[in-house]
Protein: Clc-like protein
Organism: Panagrellus redivivus
Amino acid sequence: MATSIVKKILLTLSIILIFVGMALTIGGAFSPTWQIVDIREFRAEHHHGLWWDCVRAEKHVVAVGDFYDETPLHCMYKFDNSAELVIENTLNNIDEDGAAGESEHHRFWAWHKAILFFIIFSEILAFLSVCTGVCAPCFAPTTFVFAISLFCAMICSIIADGIFFLAANRVDNRFVQGMVGTYEQRIGYAFYVHLLGTLAWVGAFVCALLTTYKFFQSNGTSDDTFEEDDQRFQQRQPFLRNYNIPQNGGFNGNGYNKPSPYPRSYRETSA
């Protein structure tokens, strides 16, 4: 009974952590704040995401070194064809347009696509692990699929975080060129939110391993099996005493009795 409760607790905790990880990773992927750069000469704050970018322009000076935001974020998709044409035209006039250098960071590069691929694939695998985990109490072999799919989701999420971290620290991605100055991009909160989701999946995978072990420990035996055997023996014992039936395994072909796993009981008779 205790083993069954532990299995259910570990399985429930693992599924909860999977859902938490899915919420965090999806929230991070939908946020444009993976990289932030404040271009002071343009009085604009640029947010560079994986599949869309946002700009907060017209930042007015209140005091020296102090700004306040007057306009909301204006966003565009990286895969928008019209935006791609604008970026191409801006880059063609790089000698005349001082913002042309910053336009490079609004393009949909291959590393953006790779990160999105691993994020989407990890979400699919995480959902598959939840479906198989729910079926584990009814069909124990699904715990293997549960653990394997969760492991693959965790690996894909780690790869996505690793690709972004390496790409964001490259010189051509880390620094933004303005008209008169160069500005350094900093990693935004969206990356850390996604990283927390990855860590939640790591914890869920540890619980999944323990769950699989509990389901298959001792070659599939459990405390419930021993309790059922003991109950059957208690029901069988009065019958054996009344009819003087030996409680051992019987006579086999080699001429000796097979030892019984239960203690022997004998009928009491009067002399």
DSSP finds eight helices and nine strands in the chain.
